[in-house]
Amino acid sequence: MKKERSRHEIGDIMQWSPKCREHFFPWKSKAAPVIEAQSIAEAGITECHPGYRLERSAPRFHLLVYTVEGAGEVYDLMRSRPVEPGQLLIVPALHPFGYLPQSETWRFVWFHLPDNDAWAFLRKEPLRVRRTVLTGAICEATEGFLRESRGRSDSHQEAGGLLIQLAGIYIRRELGAGDDNADVEAGNRLDYLSSLINADLARNWTVELLAESLGVSCSHLHHMVQKRFKISPMKLVTRLRMERAQELLILHNVPQSVIGELVGYRNEFAFLVAFKRFSGVTPGDFRKRR
User: Fold this and answer.
1) Residue 149, pLDDT above cutoff 90
2) In angstroms, rounded to a whole number, what is the distance separating the alpha carbons of residues 117 and 83?
3) Quick one: 194 and 253 in the same domain?
4) pTM higher than 0.90, yes or no?
5) In terms of residue numbers, what domain contains 282?
6) Same domain for 162 and 189?
């Protein structure tokens, strides 16, 4: 595909292939006030195949696209670039663009954000593709909303409202409301890393494994963690382990050796030393004081 396109080559096109599927937000929903409060105009999940193409010469909305499966290509008046899993496509309102699949199946979650004061900072942004760690969370919330909002009962509608509110929270977390993009992205990635560690505290975490989980170098990981937490990556692991150990000591009457194993210490003495260094008291004394 050519890297340079003339202005006349981007029009207003919606071209489908026979196997394409698209699941839109329902037009009528009791969650509509929640959607409006989250400043989301439209959203949906699209599964497209070769033959699909969409172009907009002057889109009225800001566009977000989270790739769930496969890959696509986005282009504007200047160049084209791939859009792959783990990446977010952001197109500001009025910016001409087009996209099409580059794999047999391209599945993505998309949002139209109104060009209003809530998203005013996006007006100054260029079309860009950047990394994200929120695709899974966004997809789950959107799928849940689409499923619940089709139900007829009040409980379905209530659940749909909560899920679209959650999706709105994730979007604001993603975009950072105009904060420095690099800081927002780094913060989201470190939150994601913390959740990975917390989900498997007993794992034999190393700096190399932590860096691999984020797709960065060890030196870059050290810089990110040091800038935000003022500690090294492995000290972050220790902090999360000790915080969980404190919770377990308070909530559960189980032997200290078991708690140590749950947070990654198979040697009870090593756990005792690490806990006392972190908390200032032994696990037994900590439990007694609570």
Assistant:
1) no
2) 28
3) no
4) no
5) 237-289
6) no
